[in-house]
């Protein structure tokens, strides 16, 4: 007879039946977060303010801005072909010269490596050269093609500096010298690209030019031989482009819009039409980093509390971004002087990115929701300022004594002032981000502007009208908050329909005319009335003295409770008194001017309406207006 074998408990021997579980893998070693040594020191030499400090005007949309290295001049260009020179001072910039350089929009603007020369190209088929220190135009060429992007391709101190000019409609690249009077180029590169070149940049360390075309092809070529850099030079370690990532843009069916090279020449960054930022190592051609700044990324980020924007604000920014995608407007990236940080404009502001740790360290201009920043140019280091010139400017302002001017100049001489200059989509201004936040009252007596937006150009008729309307809106106000001893009442004002009544009310409120006045007449199921300095319904006058006329509007009726209306003693007798209805009162239409309605605080009005009153409808216990705030 066979017996069934049963196990009462698991055996621990190696003779156990069945497979053994797979041993647990060793936990992966945690990667240490990469750190950049001396990061804080690098960040001190970058702008840090959340808001732009100043902005200056052109007459048309500002299309280009750049800082000339060494000489520390700032050059801006606009869609009407005008070019302006500005000098970097110890604090901010000063205007130097204005050129009506071209008849049409500027396509390219470039400064030489030593900052001594400037080149501009335009849709009017002209190329112009400038001496930066003398801020003088030294040469101009008329060409038979439409020049596009341009770039200086000579090292500092070159006897005959060369400039590369792209053709908007052909793959050709033409090389000119600033001093040549001939309209013909000294050399033409016609077979390097198969499509028009959209971006070009010079690497002074390697003495090479990087160019990219509409098909997404990126090429290197020697600035002297106009061919691929020779192997013995050792600047490029690859032999075939298949060994590199230089076909990345072509694979993604996009093209470069701008290229910037780091100061040490080891890296370059490509801004592309697909809103991807790609960082390459120059020697190997390998892609080092890739950042997606497309609209879809920001739409996904709305779910993140840290990156979340107000829904209305994000909707407006997204609409601008879609419009930007359909335009030919160019946005670029810039390296800082250390080569460790990358600055570029996005929908949410200007990002400062540490490419070593792969982290965004700050965002400039995130709160500037009305501006979509585009082109950037960065100034770092100590401003080289002509102290006599600066003292003259400060003394001429008449705001400081000579001793103060001398003291200021000594203090500012060794001060660094990192400043980021940037353009904005469809704006005729360029903006300065520094380490200083804008002050509340920056307008100075005798200055050309008020606040941080300097009006250095005469405004157009349209701008004058907008300014007039906005100033009128500021006088009239759109909302009033009436603080009473029973609570707050928020009123929406109809300044467009009843400008005189609203102006009268707002001015009285701002001047404190209504402060501590009582509600002298309260009738249940009708209205509450105030605004009489005498407190008996017989006093008060308008801001103009006496009375003013009625303003009846067909869309503003006493057809609902909580309507704000002017009290009067007959036609055209409006003064300072007003009332708030508590029921519909259609019999008052065309007799009293309706100039507002209660938005919040209806319970306060209802409580006020139910106050105990005497035979003359005056509350037994005084109910007062503490004050009225206008917004």
Automatic annotation (TrEMBL):
Residues 476-630 form the PPIase cyclophilin-type domain. InterPro entries: Cyclophilin-type_PPIase_CS, Cyclophilin-type_PPIase_dom, Cyclophilin_A-like, WD40_rpt. Residues 1-10 have a biased composition (Basic and acidic residues). WD repeats lie at residues 55-87, 99-132, 190-225. GO terms for biological process: protein folding. Residues 1-30, 436-469 are annotated as: Disordered. Its EC number is 5.2.1.8. It catalyses: [protein]-peptidylproline (omega=180) = [protein]-peptidylproline (omega=0). PROSITE patterns: CSA_PPIASE_1 (PS00170), CSA_PPIASE_2 (PS50072), WD_REPEATS_2 (PS50082), WD_REPEATS_REGION (PS50294). It is an enzyme of class 5 (isomerase). It comes from the Eukaryota. One of its GO terms (cellular component) is nucleus. Keywords: Isomerase, Repeat, Rotamase, WD repeat. GO terms for molecular function: peptidyl-prolyl cis-trans isomerase activity. Coiled coil: none annotated. This is peptidylprolyl isomerase. The gene is PPWD1.
């Amino acid at each position: 007879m066979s017996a069934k074998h049963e196990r009462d408990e698991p055996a621990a021997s190696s003779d156990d039946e069945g497979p053994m579980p797979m041993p647990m893998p060793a936990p992966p070693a945690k990667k240490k977060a990469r750190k950049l040594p001396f990061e804080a020191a690098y960040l001190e030499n970058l702008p840090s303010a959340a808001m732009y400090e100043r902005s200056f005007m052109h007459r048309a949309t500002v299309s280009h801005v750049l800082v000339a290295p060494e000489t520390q001049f700032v050059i801006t260009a606009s869609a009407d072909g005008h070019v302006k020179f500005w000098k970097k001072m110890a604090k901010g910039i000063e205007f130097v010269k204005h050129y009506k350089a071209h008849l049409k929009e500027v396509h390219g603007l470039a400064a030489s490596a030593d900052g001594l020369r400037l080149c501009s190209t335009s849709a009017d088929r002209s190329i112009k050269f400038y001496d930066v220190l003398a801020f003088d135009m030294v040469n101009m060429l008329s060409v038979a093609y439409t020049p596009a992007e341009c770039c200086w391709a000579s090292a500092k101190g070159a006897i005959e500096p060369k400039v590369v000019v792209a053709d908007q409609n052909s793959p050709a690249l033409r090389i000119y010298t600033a001093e040549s009077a001939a309209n013909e180029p000294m050399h033409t590169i016609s077979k390097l690209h198969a499509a028009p070149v959209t971006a070009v940049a010079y690497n002074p360390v390697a003495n090479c030019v990087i160019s990219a075309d509409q098909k997404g092809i990126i090429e290197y070529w020697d600035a002297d031989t106009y061919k691929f850099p020779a192997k013995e030079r050792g600047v490029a370690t690859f032999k075939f482009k298949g060994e590199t990532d230089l076909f990345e843009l072509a694979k993604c069916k996009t093209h470069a819009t701008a290229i910037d090279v780091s100061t040490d020449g080891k890296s370059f960054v490509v801004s592309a039409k697909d809103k991807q930022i790609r960082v390459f190592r120059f020697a190997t051609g390998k892609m080092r980093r890739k950042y997606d700044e497309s609209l879809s990324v920001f739409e996904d980020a709305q779910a993140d509390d840290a990156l979340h924007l107000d829904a209305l604000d994000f909707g407006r920014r997204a609409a601008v971004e879609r419009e930007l995608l359909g335009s030919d407007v160019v946005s670029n990236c810039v390296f800082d002087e250390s080569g460790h940080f990358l600055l570029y404009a996005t929908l949410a502001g200007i990002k400062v990115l540490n490419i070593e740790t792969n982290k965004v360290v700050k965002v400039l201009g995130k709160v500037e929701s009305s501006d979509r920043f585009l082109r950037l140019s960065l100034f770092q280091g100590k401003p080289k300022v002509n102290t006599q010139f600066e003292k003259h400017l400060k003394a001429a302002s008449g705001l400081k004594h000579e001793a103060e001017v001398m003291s200021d100049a000594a203090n500012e001489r060794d001060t660094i002032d990192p400043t980021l200059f940037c353009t904005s989509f469809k704006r005729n201004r360029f903006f300065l981000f520094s380490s200083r936040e804008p002050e509340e009252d920056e307008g100075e007596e005798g200055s050309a502007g008020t606040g941080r937006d300097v009006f250095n150009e005469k405004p157009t008729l349209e701008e004058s009208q907008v300014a007039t309307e906005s100033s009128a809106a500021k006088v009239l106000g759109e909302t009033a908050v009436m603080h009473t001893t029973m609570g707050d009442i928020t009123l929406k004002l109809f300044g467009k329909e009843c400008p005189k009544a609203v102006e009268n009310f707002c001015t009285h409120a701002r001047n404190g005319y209504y402060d501590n006045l009582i509600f002298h007449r309260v009738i249940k199921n009708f209205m509450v009335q105030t605004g009489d300095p005498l407190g008996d319904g017989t006093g008060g006058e308008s801001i103009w003295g006496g009375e003013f006329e009625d303003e009846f509007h067909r869309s503003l009726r006493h057809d609902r409770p909580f309507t704000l209306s002017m009290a009067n003693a007959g036609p055209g007798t409006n003064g300072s008194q007003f009332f708030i209805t508590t029921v519909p009162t259609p019999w008052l239409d065309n007799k009293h001017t309706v100039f507002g309605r209660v938005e919040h605080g209806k319970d306060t009005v209802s409580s006020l309406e139910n106050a105990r009153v005497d035979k003359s409808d005056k509350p037994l216990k005084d109910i007062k207006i503490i004050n009225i705030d206008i917004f």
